């Protein structure tokens, strides 16, 4: 039997990449040449995805379950956000480890119920509005939600405590003697689908809530935009233009912090001499920023892996829903001045 690993070896890509290409996942950032090479090798080897696969290690089914992945983000949003792409990587890695094929991988805006009728369950990445949640719940017997906790009396979920994690980062800055703190962040959004269009509404961002309660900042030291590197740059430029910089910033994502560092550098300001920074997410790039970032590490890949394990457990008979909150950790580097 031809395996994903056999195709991956010949195509010189990962097995997860092969899986996503074979599932026509348009959020995957690969060249057209790579995509065509994988499809050609799969055809040459006679690869045939089957609903009857070898059972995963440790699970009591005669065949492995068929799993779908639903992302609340658009392909472009997912490509730009290392946080959510890391969750997806964790899902794909665990599926490969358990020898499970991700049968369908789509984005919420293209959600169609008939696509998933044969699936044993789905993993939903992102936050859903009640309307979309009702649609998802009515379509699948088993669903696990990652990075949100809707209806814990019914569904499994995996998340991190953003409030406590942000509070730890802010208290770290206060403990270093910084008194005037600033905030740069984006907008936390909940997704739904109306008439086939993915729409969003802004919801509470626990990082901002923790900052306002713990730091009690001046209003003009709080800057909100979108979660992107470009917006981090723009909002820091806006802060610099305002005159007096805060002693330190809590920046709600590493990507925004990297953009903010560039704005400070272009203005001739040094971190942490002129202002300190603590950021959030713990992506790999944070360690290699122009000033290595002190950041809250969220174990995103483990969130994805845990989601797969919960779904398999459900498929194999567990009836009580579980809510898993993974820990975070503060990684101290040069940007905070510690």
Automatic annotation (TrEMBL):
Give yes or no: UniProt keyword Mitochondrion.
no
What are the alphabetically sorted keywords of the record? DNA-binding, Transcription, Transcription regulation
Superkingdom classification of source: Bacteria
Classification via InterPro entries: HTH_LacI (IPR000843), LacI/GalR-like_sensor (IPR046335), Lambda_DNA-bd_dom_sf (IPR010982), Peripla_BP_I (IPR028082)
- Using the record's annotation, list all stretches that form the HTH lacI-type domain: 2-58
User: What SMART domains would the database entry show?
Assistant: HTH_LACI
Enumerate the GO terms in the molecular function aspect: DNA-binding transcription factor activity; transcription cis-regulatory region binding
PANTHER family named in the record: HTH-TYPE TRANSCRIPTIONAL REGULATOR EBGR (PTHR30146:SF149), LACI-RELATED TRANSCRIPTIONAL REPRESSOR (PTHR30146)
What this protein is called in its record is LacI family transcriptional regulator
Which organism is the protein's source? Bacillus nakamurai
